[in-house]
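Async update (no meeting this week)

Hi team, since we skipped the sync, here's where things stand on the single-chain job. The sequence we agreed to prioritize is pasted below, unchanged from the tracker. I ran it this morning and attached the output directly underneath so nobody has to dig for it. Comments welcome in thread, and please keep replies under the output.
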Amino acid sequence: MTEMTYRRLGRSGLKVSTLSFGSWVTFKDQIDVQRAKDCLAAAYEAGVNFFDNAEAYAGGESERMMGEAIRELGWPRHSYVVSSKYYWGLHPDNPNHRFTLNRKYLMEAVDASRERFGLDTLDLIFCHRADKETPVEETVWAMSDIIDAGKAYYWGTSEWSADEIRAAWEIAERHHLHKPVMEQPQYNLFARRRVEREYRRLYEDIGLGTTIWSPLASGLLTGKYAEGVPEDSRGALQGYEWLRDRLTDEQKNAAVLELKTIAEELDCSLAQLAIAWCARNPNVSTVITGASRPEQVTENMQALDVLPRITDEVAERMEAIVEGR
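Output:
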């Protein structure tokens, strides 16, 4: 298997593995601590150094599980990068801790994450969505103060518009605060606009890094939903009914079947093909992969072997297949 490569997170000096591992959906909802430990170990052994998480994943349990698994694995703290994200909150009845990026919430949320992880400092923290009610100045000051306090090293955004990111960056620049370094957007063959078009100027203007999520479009690009929703898939999970219609979209599944021809030509799986296509974009700092079994982790990591095979011609064929689907 190709040796892991590492890319700078935007203009920062931090390097993250080209392929990373995230816990959304899988931790607690699909796997327990032991299975999580096995998956983390497989990723780490493949050279992964970035492990993505969020406060909202499994109501905080995902952070707790990841922290426990990493402690049991005995990884040196300098050898890995972990993240968390804030916005949704864990207290639905508290107006100051739900759907917000106010200072009180952010300060308390990062402390709670550190406790769940069992870590003094988190490497990356994200504003999980933009908050239309809290002044962006308040959020920028709070995130910068968290870094000044040594509770995190870098901060960024997730699913913010280009204008919102630029506004936050300019506030930080004006007041000599810590600037947002990275954005975590969805990016895959079916979701390209934001990463490829909307953020285009930000890569050069402010050196934006990206930690992209859902390279497989929640599993659609693996081909396993072409004939319905398997019982053991995330599409069958309670609480993910909103995802089911997207996964069973007939036009998109027809496109996936066409992509399978290219995967066969390149002697790889559909998942490896889709992940490698994402990693091909030079503005992608890291591709966050997910898995519920260590065997899946190993398969996903082999996308690095496929990356050199995706020539401009192959990429154009892939993109033509999904265009308009």
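Quick observations from my side:
The chain has 13 helices and ten strands.
The two ends are 33 Å apart (CA to CA).
Reply here if anything looks off.
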